[in-house]
Design goal:
130 residues, three-stranded parallel sheet, 15% strand, disordered C terminus
Length: 130
């Protein structure tokens, strides 16, 4: 008996995830704008949740300074994602400094930080290494 080869990648959702890319230095003043950008990805203009089964990914490979303002942004983005149908925010390309800070403040349990973690080196524009 033979079985067909499995298609697709393991542990990858069939729906295309919503992707928010965060680059540069995140300040407290930038947090509301990031939240608004994520809401635009998650909601239709009439306020209905778009693709409720799609994931919510946030690529942080382009951040240039890890501090509590970035942690606050991640916490608030996680809240926006959760309000859009109970989704969890998944971080991609998490620099080690950010991973440590998220662990320290207890946010590693609120957002998924294991999604594509790396050294912060990627193909996103505006990165200058973390």
């Amino acid at each position: 008996m033979s079985f067909g080869r499995r298609t697709g990648l393991p542990d990858v959702e069939p729906m295309t995830p919503n992707l928010l890319v965060v680059t540069g230095r995140v300040t407290r003043a930038a947090v509301p704008g990031l939240c608004a950008e994520l809401e635009t990805l998650l909601y239709d203009p009439d306020g209905a949740v778009r693709a409720p089964d799609a994931g919510v990914d946030c690529d942080v490979s382009g951040v240039v300074h890890v501090d509590l303002a970035l942690v606050e942004a991640i916490a608030r983005l996680g809240l926006v994602a959760r309000r859009a149908g109970g989704r969890r925010l998944r971080l991609r390309n998490v620099p080690p400094e950010l991973q440590g800070l998220l662990d320290l403040v207890g946010l590693a349990d609120v957002v998924d930080v294991g999604c594509g973690t790396g050294t912060g080196v990627g193909a996103e524009a505006g990165e200058s290494g973390g």
